[in-house]
C-alpha cells in the first residue's frame, strides 16, 4: 500500500464490536446502561467520602481517587463508541484518536499505580498500626497520588509521541471500539520494532512493578495476620482488605486475559470483545465491590439519601 504522511491522515475508522446492523441498538442500550451505572456508582463513592468527615482518611482518599479514575477511564472510550453507534458512523479524527490513546493510557496506568498505593496503605495499617498516622500523613499520601499521576501522564505522553512519529498506509481501519496502541502500530507502514520494544518495556515496568509491590504487600499482610491469635481478629483483618484484593484480581485478571486472548487468537475482533472486561466491566463493578463490603460507605450513602428525601 502507498504510505501517506500522518499530516495527511484526517481520520481512522473504528470497526467496533459488530458489523451486524441489528446488533447496534442492543449494543447502544447495553453500553449506555453500563456507562451510566459506572458514573453513578463511582460518583456516589466520591460524594460519600467528601461529605463525611470521618471518611477523610488515607484509605478513603485513595478510594475516591480510584473512583474518579474509573469514571475518567470509561469516559475515554464509551461515549465515542455510543456516538458512533447512534450515528451509524465509524470515524474518529486523527487528533481525537491520539487524544483517546493518551487519556486511555493515562488512566490505565494510574489505576494500576493507585491499586499499588492502596496495597501499601493496607500494609502500613495492618503491619505497623502504631506508626500508621505518622507514616500516612496528609502530605505523604497526597504526594503518593501526585507522583502516581505524574508517572502515568509522562508515560501516556510518551505513547502519544511514539504514534505521532509513525506513517500510516491507506488502510486506517482499527479493528477495535477505541484507538488501542497495539492496533495502531499494526496499521503503520513504519518500522515499529523500537515502538514494540518500548511498549513491552513500559508494560513490564508499570504493570509488573506495581503488581510485584501488591504481591509483596499482601505477603507481609498475610504473615502479620497469621500471627494474630484470635480467629475473629484474623477474619476482621482479612475482610478489611478483601475489597481491595477483589478489585486487584479483577483489574489484573481481565488485563491478563486480554493479553493472552490477543496472543492466542488471531481475530482482532475477538480481542476487542474481551477487552470490554477491563475497559467497561471492571470500572462498573469497582464501586459495588467497595460499597457492598463497606459499612461506612453504605451508612453515609443512606444518610445522604434520607436527607435528600
TrEMBL record:
G-protein coupled receptors family 1 profile domain location: 41-290
Protein name: Olfactory receptor 18-like
InterPro entries: GPCR_Rhodpsn, GPCR_Rhodpsn_7TM, Olfact_rcpt
One GO CC annotation: membrane
Superkingdom of source: Eukaryota
Record keywords: G-protein coupled receptor, Membrane, Olfaction, Receptor, Sensory transduction, Transducer, Transmembrane, Transmembrane helix
MF term (GO), any: olfactory receptor activity
Gene expressing this chain: LOC104999929
Pfam families recorded: 7tm_4
Subcellular location: Membrane
Functional note: Putative odorant or sperm cell receptor.
PROSITE patterns reported for this sequence: G_PROTEIN_RECEP_F1_2 (PS50262)
Gene3D superfamilies: Rhodopsin 7-helix transmembrane proteins
Residue stretches spanning the membrane: 26-49, 61-83, 103-128, 140-158, 197-216, 237-260, 272-292
Topology in membrane: Multi-pass membrane protein
Chief site of localization: membrane
Coiled coil: none
UniProt keyword annotation of Ribonucleoprotein present: no
Entry-linked PANTHER family: OLFACTORY RECEPTOR (PTHR48001)
Amino acid at each position: 500500500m502507498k504510505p501517506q504522511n500522518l499530516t495527511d491522515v484526517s481520520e481512522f475508522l473504528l470497526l467496533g464490536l459488530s458489523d451486524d446492523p441489528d446488533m447496534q441498538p442492543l449494543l447502544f442500550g447495553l453500553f449506555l446502561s453500563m456507562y451510566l451505572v459506572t458514573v453513578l456508582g463511582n460518583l456516589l463513592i466520591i460524594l460519600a467520602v467528601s461529605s463525611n468527615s470521618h471518611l477523610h482518611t488515607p484509605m478513603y482518599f485513595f478510594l475516591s481517587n480510584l473512583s474518579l479514575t474509573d469514571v475518567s477511564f470509561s469516559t475515554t472510550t464509551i461515549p465515542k463508541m455510543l456516538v458512533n453507534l447512534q450515528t451509524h458512523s465509524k470515524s474518529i479524527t486523527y487528533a481525537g484518536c491520539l487524544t483517546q490513546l493518551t487519556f486511555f493510557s493515562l488512566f490505565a496506568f494510574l489505576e494500576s499505580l493507585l491499586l499499588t498505593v492502596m496495597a501499601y496503605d493496607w500494609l502500613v495499617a495492618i503491619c505497623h498500626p502504631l506508626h500508621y498516622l505518622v507514616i500516612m500523613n496528609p502530605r505523604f499520601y497526597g504526594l503518593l497520588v501526585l507522583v502516581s499521576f505524574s508517572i502515568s501522564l509522562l508515560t501516556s505522553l510518551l505513547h502519544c509521541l511514539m504514534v505521532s512519529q509513525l506513517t500510516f498506509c491507506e488502510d486506517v481501519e482499527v479493528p477495535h471500539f477505541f484507538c488501542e496502541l497495539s492496533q495502531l502500530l499494526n496499521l503503520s507502514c513504519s518500522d515499529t520494532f523500537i515502538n514494540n520494544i518500548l511498549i513491552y518495556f513500559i508494560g513490564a515496568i508499570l504493570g509488573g512493578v506495581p503488581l510485584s509491590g501488591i504481591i509483596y504487600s499482601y505477603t507481609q499482610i498475610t504473615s502479620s495476620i497469621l500471627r494474630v491469635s484470635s480467629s475473629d481478629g484474623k477474619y476482621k483483618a482479612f475482610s478489611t482488605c478483601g475489597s481491595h484484593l477483589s478489585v486487584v484480581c479483577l483489574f489484573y485478571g481481565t488485563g491478563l486475559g486480554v493479553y493472552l486472548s490477543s496472543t492466542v487468537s488471531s481475530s482482532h475482533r475477538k480481542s476487542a470483545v474481551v477487552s470490554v472486561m477491563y475497559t467497561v466491566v471492571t470500572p462498573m463493578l469497582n464501586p459495588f465491590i467497595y460499597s457492598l463490603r463497606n459499612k461506612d460507605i453504605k451508612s453515609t450513602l443512606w444518610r445522604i439519601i434520607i436527607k435528600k428525601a
